[in-house]
Amino acid sequence: MPGADGGAGGRAERLPWATVSTSAERPAPSAVPSRVEPPLDPAWVARTVALALDEDLGAAPGRDVTTQATVPADETGTAHLVARADGVVAGLVVVEEVTRQVADRLGLPPVVVTFSAADGEAVGRGRVLAALTGPVQVLLVAERTLLNLASRASGVATATRAWARALEGTGAQVLDTRKTTPGLRALEKYAVRAGGGTNKRMGLYDVAMVKDNHVVAAGSVSAAIAAIRRAFPDVLVQVEADTTAQALEALDAGADFLLLDNMPTPVLGETVAAVRDREGRDGVPAKVELEATGNLTLDRAREVAGTGVDYLSVGALTHSAPILDLALDLLPTLPRR
Predict the structure, then answer these.
(1) CATH number of this structure's domain 12-164+322-330, picked from the four choices 3.40.630.10, 3.40.50.1100, 2.30.110.20, 3.90.1170.20
(2) Residue 335 has what pLDDT?
(3) Torsion region of 282: left, alpha or beta (phi above 0 gives left; psi -120 to 50 gives alpha)
(4) Is the pTM of this model over 0.85?
(5) Is 143 one of the annotated active-site residues of the chain?
């Protein structure tokens, strides 16, 4: 199941949030805007920002017909990135990359970013998260792209923090799922970590998940697990179970950990007890990690955790979290003479 690095049994070098660039060409940040480990891969951030800017400005270098017509290229100013609601911030790591790429596209000097908050930090409404100083054209062109990314990530982090707090002291952790925005999975899973949650698998490549359709296709749970072991011996295998009997069958077949799906709390408790009773016997590992999923709500979080499961996986962390409202406010400047 998820390891200390936030992964889930895959190789760290294959995961887009686990590779740190050491390129001497990349400028050092003006501050460290992240408390989150593992960090996002700077190369992934650069690609994602470039795509987002192409979407907003047209193919590189692109243009902002309003800003470039109304703001002189040599005008400079300062803008504050501000939280308009209470929440947990994430995605500040993209701010410098967005402004850097915009400045490059416009052929203008870079923006200096000074952070006053860090990814993973709880902030109140009105908190200034960063000050951005440089060409006003760059600030205005970059505004929507950096807000889209940071607001989305901060919304995920805020939703995750609520679950992490609900589970405090229970021994259980909240997990994310693959129900993410296409193209933004690395950012959204980073935001889950910023909120105090834990990442599950990044995709279909790093952990095997045997669901009912796989059982139908393979003929049985044991046949499915055996096929995975032969083809991909380096990956962990999780099996989805809807009943206690299915969970025990999966244990006998050699599953590494279990996904207990849509079980009423009493059944979930019985299943956990039955699995714990089998641990360390008849070839079953000494510790089998158990994940509850399906119809989970915040008001049930502690009740579900009380059954003894290790994880609660919540798709809503990424597929339903509202954004955290952030704004980029340009500070007034003295009128030109």
Answers:
(1) 3.90.1170.20
(2) 63
(3) left
(4) yes
(5) no
